[in-house]
């Protein structure tokens, strides 16, 4: 009997048990070290509110956060915190030729898929051929050719040097089994409800409130020490706090105020590794179908000037958030990549006079209600935030009051996690509070490629890959392309300066703050979590690739 079949019954029983416990935990304070089956189960909360969508397609925006890293793996793992050398996964070594146009990768000989089929270099070749055939999957922008000289070697060839793009190919591309995907109907819409992966965990049970990944007994790196991971959905940060304190969550990535005081005397600990940059995402392009006042760069600039970020940090984020650069290069880590004219961080205090000036110069006038308008359209916009995300909700409630002083009406709207995700993906929003994610390696190039390149966006109503703001600028596109093959740091910085000039002026993402990234661990049941001294992976459970590295490193407390 297969691993999946042998465990199905007891994990189903555990699902019923866990649902009941979660419903009662905040009231009763009862806790459990394991599932009803007696196996060690790590309960994970990534901030999801509402129902889970049964989507394990690693190429579709909106796939569940465990898909990339726990179920599917790339060739190598890149640590964006430490910048250490890539760690072998399905690849064991790689080498470029001198001019960066040929990349040779040796693949692992001892790996197999979760259905028992053998992994080989042919799966890698199939994956990259598929990226070229299906542009919607090709977030990495792969434009090379791939050959397979033998069962454990793939060779990529490129027309231009590919040094900069290699981390996206090697570390941010999920490798998929050819024997499954070659026979899949409509891969661009198929949600892959029964995923076959190479990772340390595999799907065991799913329902809209929680789902289970079980340890892969035949994982090439050895079976994980924990038996299962259970991902749960809650109503928001308050219920997450209650559930954490009752001992029913082992790993979470959420915001909590006064965390040191809350955790005193418990087995809970945390790290704070702020990397993602919180911004007001704007549906910015009229040409791509966006509507609303935020399509005018003058309105976006006025919002930028009208925000009191210091107040937002104090009121909504307990002072945990950090200052950010308007260039979206990460301050501290990426200072050498910021053009001198943009060295100053975003302002902490508002500049109401500057906000007024930019709107007046653009032809706006205040109405009797104190709100600016132009051509009969008031500067009034809705900003979407996820229900239960108390920090984001508080931030937007405070921002709405701040912007009234400018003459801008900002209306916060709480929506489910799934609706928030779908709205961004399809472009059916005016403003949305979110974080611009870091790329696969420690360089702003990957932020520019993923979040600003035209090839990663789409018209409103169509699925966008990462560039949710519908930003399209040929000058930026050309500079990103040139940076990918820049021969020197000086040449790359010159291209970054071009990009930064455009995006600071256009501001499709209105900078707010560098988001705190609290990763919370319960050390009573398992150990091996990342620490400040040993940040072997970015520790949040909602971070693709890193979450798989953390999960397979955990050790059960005996």
TrEMBL record:
Signal peptide: 1-25
A Gene Ontology term for the protein's cellular component: periplasmic space
InterPro entries membership: Peptide/Ni-bd, SBP_5, SBP_5_dom
Record domain Solute-binding protein family: where: 86-454
Keyword list, A-Z: Signal
Gene Ontology MF, one: peptide transmembrane transporter activity
Biological process (GO), any one: peptide transport
Entries under Pfam families matching the protein: SBP_bac_5
PANTHER family tied to this protein: ABC-TYPE DIPEPTIDE_OLIGOPEPTIDE TRANSPORT SYSTEM, PERIPLASMIC COMPONENT, PERIPLASMIC BINDING COMPONENT OF ABC TRANSPORTER
UniProt protein name: ABC transporter substrate-binding protein
Species of origin: Cryobacterium frigoriphilum
